[in-house]
Amino acid sequence: LHGLRMLNPAIFSRLPFASADSTNIGRNVGIDQAWTGSYAPAGKAARARVMRGLAQRALGDPKAALADFDAAVQLMPDEPVPYFNRGTTRRLLGDVAGAKADFDVVLRRRPADRDAFGERGNARLALGDVAGALEDLETALRLGRDDGDVRFDLGELHRHLGDATAALAEFDRSLERKPGNPVAHRRRGALR
């Protein structure tokens, strides 16, 4: 918290962090959820950059978030968390190849990271690597990430391959898990 306040005190006027402790905030924004050991980044500045980047992205400023994640990667080059967040932000900004490279780094450091497999599968699909996307998305499922996004990506993959039956089944599964996805609704409607 102190690091965030040092970098930008105005964040606390827009987000409900004022009375929370840093452990709860870390869990709320996803830093500690999959961590198996203690979270010990290089220092306060690095932690603050990751936290501020997540806040900036949540507030709709992915370019500012990317700058913070870039700085966190420089400060903590051996930690997977800033790479993962930079990858999802790069994907959001259209830098799919950069996103894939970041997810590659995460998976070298955490070879059973189901979220990184799901995100890299999405990036591989966008880059036209259908076989790699299928491998990553199936691995994400096998590791327990059975959410609407992975199922949607599998639907897109099967649609790309011309398998309307499998695509429709995956879009249905996606909507069971994430009913508000308008693109999945459109894709499913077009296949019926």
Q: Assign a percent range to the helix content.
A: over 70%
Helix run count = 12
Kindly report the average pLDDT value: 84
Order of helices and strands: HHHHHHHHHHHH
Shape: elongated
- Straight-line N-to-C gap: 50 Å
| SS class | mainly alpha
Q: What is Rg? A: 18 Å
Biggest sheet overview:
none
Pick out the low-confidence regions: 16-41
Please state roughly what percent of the residues sit in beta strands, choosing from under 5%, 5-15%, 15-25%, 25-35%, 35-45% or over 45%: under 5%
The strand count comes to 0
Descriptive overview:
The chain has twelve helices and no strands. With 192 residues, it is mainly α. It is elongated. The model is unreliable at 16-41 (pLDDT under 50).
Compose a concise summary of this entry.
This protein is an all-alpha fold and 192 residues long.
